[in-house]
Amino acid sequence: MVFVSECKSTQRSDAAATVACIKITIFLTIFSAIPLATCFSRSIITGHSCHDLPLTLRQKTTLQGWVQDNDGEWQWQEDDAPYPSSVATSTITATATPTLPSGSFRPKQSLGQNYLRDGNTVAKIVRAFVKDATETLARRNDGGDSKLEGSTQQTQRPLRAIELGPGAGALTDVLIPTIGITNLQCIEIDGRSVELLSDKHPELTIRHQDVLQVDYPSLAKQPFNNNDAGGPLSIIGNLPYYITSQILFALADASHTDSIRSATVTMQWEVGRRIIAPPSCKDYGILTVVFQLYADCSIHFKIPPTVFYPKPKVDSALLGLHFVGPEKLRRRLVGVRPEDLRNVVTSVFQKRRKTVRNGIRKLAMKVLGDEERVKLFLDSEPLPLPEVVKMDRDDGDAFALGQELPRDWASKRPEELTPGQFIEITRMLYGADEDWETCPLRNKVWRKLNHGSNSN
Ligand SMILES: C[S@@+](CC[C@H](N)C(=O)[O-])C[C@H]1O[C@@H](n2cnc3c(N)ncnc32)[C@H](O)[C@@H]1O
Are 215 and 174 part of one and the same domain? Predict the structure, then answer.
C-alpha cells in the first residue's frame, strides 16, 4: 500500500510506468506473504508453531532456561509468554460461563487470571480429569488401595482431588457434583476467590495458599473426610501460566512419594508441545526429559483463547500426566540419583546448540576433578546396560528400548538423546546406587529450594 501511494504521488501520466508500478506492487505483496504462508501451511501440517520466524513476524517471548544462582543452585527461569493485557470488557458477552461478581472482581493479570467462560470446555476438562485419574489408578493395577511411601495408611477412596487455582469456580462447580464435595480440596492464593467460593460452597475445603508452597506428601497423608484415610492425590487445574513449569516440577517431586498420581492441567500450547516432543525436535528440552521419564503424557485437546476471560493471546492445551510412581521410576533410573540427572540435563540444555561434550565438560570437571579423568569420561564407550533394563527392553518396554547410548554419544546434540540415554550419561559420570530398588528419591529435586516444606 505504501508503495502504491508513493507511485501515485509521482503523478506520472506515462501508462507504461503505471503498469510497471502495479506489477512491482503485486510482486512485493506476494513476496512478503510467502514467509507467513509457508509458516501457516507448515504449522497446519506439522502442528508446530513458527519458532523459526524472525522476531518481527512472531510474538516476542522471554527466554527460558535454568540459571545458577550465587550458591550454585540451579533455578528454573520461567519462559511462559508474558500475559497480554485484558481485552475490553465490552467484548465479553453477559452469558459468559461462569460470570464473575460484577464490579469488585477484576481479573488480576499478575496472578495469571484467565477465567474459563465456556461451559463445554469446562465439561471437557472435567471429563478428561476423571478419565486420567481413574485410568492412572487402573494402570497401577491396585484400584487405588495402595500405601503412600513412608505411611502405614491405606487409601479407601480411589479419587481424592486437588484443584489448583479454582478462581471463581468454573471447574469447581462441575467437579463437586461429579466427584463429591468431600473428595475435593482447592488451593487458591487470591482472597477474593476464597471468600467467593466459601460463600458458594460452605462445605468445601479451600486452602488460602500459594500453590508453590504446597507440601503434597503431607497433604496426601491427610484424610479428606470421615471415610477417608489419606492417599494419593489427583490434580486438576486451569493453571496460572506464569508459574506453569514450577507447578509441574513440584508435582514431579511429589510423585517420588506417590503423593500425586495424575495431573490434568491447562498450559500454554507451546509448553504442552515441549512436554510431549520427540527427540530431534526443536521443542525437545528439560521439560521433555523430566516428564517423559516421570509420567506418561498426552495432550487431550487444544484450547482457543476465546474460551477464557480475559482472552490470552496464546493457545492453550489440556495435558494429562499419568505419573509412573516411585517403583517404576526407580526401575527406570536404575540407581541414578534424580539430583545427578538434573545436573546433567540442566548443563547440556543450557548449551543446547553445542554437543553434549561441550555442554557437560564444566560439570564433569566439577564431579571428576581433573582434566585427564574428564577426557577419559568424554571419550569412553557407553556402559553395558543394567540387566533390568535389558529385561524391560526384551519385553518391548518403550522407555528401555531407547536407553542404549550410541558410541558417539558425546558428539550428539542434547535434543538427539532420549530421556533414557540421559540416565546412562549420568550413570557414567556419577555412578549409580547398586541397590536401585531402594534408592532414595528426595522431596526436592526439580522444584526450587524455597518452595514447599523444608524436609528433603
Ligand atoms: C487461569 S486462572 C483459573 C481460574 C479458574 N479455575 C477458571 O478456570 O476459571 C488461575 C487461578 O490460579 C490462581 N493463582 C495464581 N497464582 C497462584 C498461586 N501462586 N497459588 C495459588 N493460586 C494461584 C489465580 O488467582 C486464579 O484463580
Answer: yes
In a domain, 442, yes or no: no
Q: How far is CA 126 from the centre of its chain?
A: 19
Instruction: Give the model confidence (pLDDT) of 347-357 as tens digits.
Output: 999 999 999 99
User: Which CATH number belongs to the domain containing residue 89 in this structure?
Assistant: 3.40.50.150
**Residues 314 and 371 reside in one and the same domain:** no
For the chain, helix (H) and strand (E) counts, in that order, are 16, 11
Same domain, 239 and 364: no
Range of the domain at 409: 338-432
For residues 252 and 317, membership in a common domain is answered with: yes
From atom 14 of ligand 1, which residue's Cα is the shortest distance away?
165
pLDDT at 56: 26
Question: 3-state DSSP: the chain helix, strand, coil percent, rounded to 5?
Answer: 45, 15, 40
Q: In terms of domains, do 17 and 156 share one?
A: no
Annotate 92-125 with b (16+ C-beta within 10 A) or e (fewer).
beeebbbebeeeebebebebbbbbbbbeebbebb
Q: Are residues 95 and 138 in the same domain?
A: yes
Is 165 annotated to bind ligand?
yes
Plot region of 17 (φ>0 → left; ψ -120 to 50 → alpha; else → beta): alpha
Ligand 1 centre from 108 Cα, in Å?
A: 10
Bridge partner residues of 76 (DSSP): 66
Residue nearest to atom 13 of ligand 1 (CA): 165
What are the distances in angstroms from CA 46 to CA 39, 49, 313?
10, 9, 21
Pocket test for ligand 1, best of 172, 238, 450 (most atoms within 8 A of CB): 238
Q: Is 54 exposed, middle or buried (0-12, 13-18, 19+ CB in 10 A)?
A: exposed
Residue 238 known to bind ligand: yes
Q: How far apart are the first and last CA of the chain?
A: 63
Instruction: Give the ipTM.
Output: 1.00
The pTM (predicted TM-score) of the whole model is: 0.79
Binding pocket residue ranges, ligand 1, CB within 6 Å: 111-116, 165-168, 170-171, 187-190, 193, 210-212, 238, 240, 243
Higher pLDDT, 434 or 294: 294
Same domain, 321 and 344: no
